[in-house]
Design brief:
The chain is of the alpha+beta class. It is built from 9 helices and 14 strands. The strands form 3 sheets. An 8-stranded mixed β-sheet has the order 3-4-5-2-1-10-13-12. A 4-stranded antiparallel β-sheet has the order 6-7-14-11. A two-stranded antiparallel ribbon has the order 8-9.
Length: 267
């Protein structure tokens, strides 16, 4: 189980360097549906491969692994039962999640897809927390993980939260949300940390790659879309699908760029 969680952490941690990211949610009439986040890390594999020694005699790696977390929870139920209650609860929230990792070093292919089928909108409201919990468990179950230093915090996923109320869907950067007495309050606190400085230095070396890497958001609704908050977002001919794309360099340069993505549906 430790190895499984570590593989997840390393793969998603690499997303902080450079890749193409796609987030897709398909909603049904009851606002249940399917969620998927896909990471194309092929550029990283190609870059790291070019730095390796050619003709080393080491066999190239190929992998096509599908993990169903329902199966994991059953297989390791005895081990999970020994964990603290809060850890058990965190793992149970990963039910219905799947992860598929594909790698082919010869073809420079490296992809990671995490998905979840959900019955109610509330099941995905905090899904970024569930993904981040995988990273936390990995660090705790890896030798030296507790003393990884500032770099250990790179094994995190962005905290985003989803809302749906009054025919309005929102994707909000959780760092900017403060819920108090049932009211939504957005607060921006710009604080440069040691981790920020380290990441800025790393990103400078990958600037061209970041400019070519994209994040694509795609949301499919059961009703027609009335309006979208983000300039440049497109609506499909049938009026029910919203697509938005932005390069990762823009997101790194302006952390507030995707602080609030809002889609209003027709009545």
């Amino acid at each position: 189980m430790k190895k499984l969680i570590l593989v997840l952490a390393v793969a998603v941690g690499l997303v902080t360097v450079s890749c193409n990211i796609q987030e897709r949610i398909v909603f049904n009439e009851n606002m249940g549906g399917s969620y998927e986040t896909g990471f194309d890390l092929s550029q990283i594999l190609e870059a790291t491969g070019s730095m390796g020694a050619s003709g080393s005699g080491v066999a190239s790696k190929k992998m096509d692994t599908l993990i169903r977390f329902n199966d994991v929870l059953v297989k390791y139920k005895d081990s999970i039962a020994t964990l603290p209650k809060e850890k058990q609860a965190a793992l149970q929230k990963m039910k219905n999640m799947t992860m598929r990792m594909q790698m082919d070093e010869d073809k420079n292919i490296f992809t990671l897809n995490i998905g979840k089928e959900f019955k109610n909108f509330s099941d995905i409201e905090f899904i970024s927390y569930e993904m981040d919990e995988m990273m936390n468990l990995a660090k705790e179950n890896t030798a030296g993980g507790q003393a990884a230093g500032p770099g250990g915090d790179m094994l995190k996923t962005d905290k985003v939260r989803y809302f749906f109320e009054n025919n309005t869907f929102k994707r909000v950067d959780e760092k900017l949300v403060d819920l108090k007495d049932g009211e939504e309050k957005l607060e921006v606190e710009e604080e440069v940390t040691e981790e920020d400085m380290m990441m800025k230095g790393m990103m400078g070396e990958f600037e061209d790659m970041l400019a070519e890497s994209k994040m694509t958001l795609e949301y499919v609704f059961p009703k027609k879309v009335k309006s979208v908050s983000m300039e440049g977002a497109t609506i499909s001919p049938d009026g029910k699908t919203v697509t938005f794309q932005v390069d990762l360099k823009t997101l790194m340069d302006n952390k507030k760029f995707l602080e609030n993505f809002e889609v209003v549906l027709e009545d």
